[in-house]
Amino acid sequence: MEPFEVHILGCGSALPTTRHNASSQVIRIGNKQFMIDCGEGTQLQLRRGHVHFSFINHIFISHLHGDHCFGLIGLISTFALLGRTAPLHIYADGMLETLMKPHLDFFCKGMNYPIFFHGIDATKHNIIYEDNTITVETLPQKHRMPCCGFLFKEKPKKRHLIGDAVNYYNIPAYMRQAIKDGADFTTPDGEVIPNARLTREADPSRSYAYCSDTLPCPGNNKYIKGVDLLYHEATFAESEKGRAASTFHSTARQAAQIACDAEAKRLVIGHFSSRYDECDILQKEAKEIFENTLMADEGRIFTI
Amino acid sequence: MEPFEVHILGCGSALPTTRHNASSQVIRIGNKQFMIDCGEGTQLQLRRGHVHFSFINHIFISHLHGDHCFGLIGLISTFALLGRTAPLHIYADGMLETLMKPHLDFFCKGMNYPIFFHGIDATKHNIIYEDNTITVETLPQKHRMPCCGFLFKEKPKKRHLIGDAVNYYNIPAYMRQAIKDGADFTTPDGEVIPNARLTREADPSRSYAYCSDTLPCPGNNKYIKGVDLLYHEATFAESEKGRAASTFHSTARQAAQIACDAEAKRLVIGHFSSRYDECDILQKEAKEIFENTLMADEGRIFTI
After folding, report:
1. Cα four-point dihedral sign A270, A276, A280, A284
2. What CATH architecture does domain A4-157+203-303 belong to?
3. CA B276/CA A165 separation, integer angstroms
4. Which contacts of A169-173 are long-range, i.e. CB under 8 A and separated by 24 or more positions?
């Protein structure tokens, strides 16, 4: 199967520490790379992670708190210095374009590539990106400002041709795509060979959901039901549940409950508060609810 | 003597690398801390260097290229998150305030401390900061946009009282400041004791000059003559002299020539181009002209 990976560049929260960078991650699906959030220092994390800058064409910003977007202007400048010509698409609250425009005009004058801002309505569940193999949907979050998560979903894939059958029936190349799509095959003698004898099951369509920053939003469970990998913020431990609620964040246990209720296959928790030197307590509390909990960490790559 | 230190936070140039961060440094004079330039990731470098955020009250920005100022908004936000109440003074081209104002209003709404922008005329040599012990002067640079260096100078210090003389003549406490300032002492019997017998030489007034980004500017030598420590950009090796000229930067050798002509005591070179994996060639070329050349590096502290 083609790669489907989530590469964590930063999984700290608002106060940067020497342990965790501000939020950012790269999603690699086939030969495409997408970025989610872009906190300060993201371009350095790309360097450290040996990520090819030029393959990033789409950046999704969950919300306009600094720890999720202050790295954009530096990244955009560096793209320009590296001679980029490919368009860059940024999906974010419309306010981002308003704020960035004067900075782009001043700091990035004479850039050789265009930037397209795509305004997101964070209150709605929408498909905001689509290509031949995947879709990206918004997941409305509950935060102190408009904020949305993102659901990356592979489209249904074609069935696999069974090599022996293709040879046996001598199926011409030009008919194979149709058969992968489910068509039967009629031999020159008029015999109809049912598709089930020519193909086997398509690879499953994989999915990844990113939910940060937010109070628990069980209303999104219907969209992320059975998701292969769920990244959910877990800023606080249960002892700080009140603080989580008042700042519109989740505890590790709440993140795990979402994973459990949404029947996620695996959960990655991140967006750790700077108060936790080690995040063991967060992992422990999440695992009590959802055993298959993993910890985000800078440089860690999760394969789906 | 009180400390006078230059703490390098970043000494790379426009393209960030895993070896060098964007430009920033902290100048520590007595119990005061000043920041020069604030590229992306500066607040993380402050963390790594265990620098007290709250002691930074004055930030000097040489010019408005991203690698010298993109870290400001993140630093300002973090100051706010840490509960800062002390005013912050930023000295920079007036355009910075225009550009930052909408970002401060949006990202730092409700901050508990004021920011004062002080517009700099980078074309002039001026005193732009003064307190009881130091002055900061601008040094006009030649770059692709208005840019200035900064000269930090201690004011002349008081002479030291000679303890034995103070005891012998039983000099009352209230007269000691005047004697430190150079006054003679008249005993109760009317005998005049010349100052030279009561005091010894004051500590020398130390100085530090920061010159980046710029073509060589020998016109500033009269201001920095005899400077204790000169930080001068040395973006390129001699083999890239043409490129240095066309991008308004200096070679290591040119930086060393300035140090030589200005009779600097020591030279620190920095702002290294990302093309140099190791900067040995830059050090070698500078040392051929000016032996007392040191290399900037992240985390390195130079004591004056």
Report:
1. negative
2. 4-Layer Sandwich (3.60)
3. 58
4. A169/A193, A169/A198, A171/A198
CB A185 within 8 A of CB A198: yes
Question: Which segments of chain B have a pLDDT < 50?
Answer: none
- ipTM entry: 0.92
CB within 8 Å: B16 and A44: yes
The number of C-beta contacts closer than 8 angstroms across A and B is: 80
Output the pLDDT for position B150: 98
The answer to which of A126-130, A294-298, B210-214, B273-277 has the lowest mean pLDDT is B273-277
In chain A, where the domains are located: 4-157+203-303, 160-200
Task: State both tokens at B266.
Answer: 């020591």
Chain A contacts to B (CB-CB under 8 A): 14-18, 21-22, 40-41, 43-44, 47-48, 64-66, 70-71, 73-74, 77-78, 81-82, 95, 99, 102-103, 106-107
pLDDT digits (tens, 9 = 90+) for B4-22: 999 999 999 999 899 999 9
Query: Cα A120–A136–A270 angle (5° rounding)?
Result: 85
What's the rounded Cα separation, in Å, for the pair A78 and A66?
Answer: 19
Q: Please give the Cα distance from B199 to B178 (Å, whole number).
A: 11
